[in-house]
Amino acid sequence: MTGIERAVEQSIRIMQSKLSEPLSIDDMARFAMYSKFHFSREFHRITGISPRRFLSALRIQEAKRLLLTTGMTVTDISCSVGYSSVGTFSSRFANSVGLPPSMYRQVGGYTKQINVAQKISAGERVRGFVTAPTVAELGLIFLGIFPTRVPEGQPISCTVLRTPGPFEMENVPPGVWYLLGHSVPASTHEALTDGLPIHVGSLGPLEIRPRVAHPDVEFPLRGVRVLDPPVLMALQKVRSAAFENNLVRPAG
Length: 252
What we know:
Layout: H1 3-17, H2 25-32, H3 36-47, H4 51-69, H5 74-80, H6 86-97, H7 101-106, E1 114-116, E2 124-131, E3 141-146, E4 157-161, E5 166-172, E6 175-183, E7 199-208, E8 217-220, E9 222-223, H8 238-245, E10 248-250
Parallel strand pairs: 1-10, 2-8
Antiparallel strand pairs: 2-5, 3-4, 3-6, 6-7, 7-9
Helix pairs in contact: 1-2, 2-3
């Protein structure tokens, strides 16, 4: 790990310890001991997103944990993760996770189905092959195509695999996308994975052009790192049911 990667990792750990505080880019850069502009540029290069966006994702991730493990009210949780407005918090949580905070707690962090963004009638295919370390403890593997490096909201397209191997996603519209993957051990809870052997993957940006076949891609899964943006969308249980019940479907 390079010096700047260590500095970015340390800044993320400090963010995690100060989620209730109004951190600025200047604060984060000072923790890393770099200028604001150099820190922001290198942070984005290393993690794929801006420091501010990463901090927002950490706050939503912590809110998910608190909703499932405490009896705190939604208002108290919003304050504890740095939001002064419970309305703003609830809106951002729902947009990222796919469920409002109260409903997320009510269903235990699970979702009945993954709603994908409205598909176009004809798009391009993204195909490839998922690989993983031979010693990896994998559950079902979720793959989704997203507009950014954060797995949140509705994917453009998605699929679930039982094991590493070939995959294919159809009707991906022209644009620039990110292919993101996530797998947790089968016995664990999707939203309560601190310290567990999660495996993730990221590929992109992928430029999809109309009527141009995209070359097959190799998609390696690896152990999660502090530098990886958290998975925000609710997924649990849809994986085990997806094959029997066809629960991965378009929105609307």
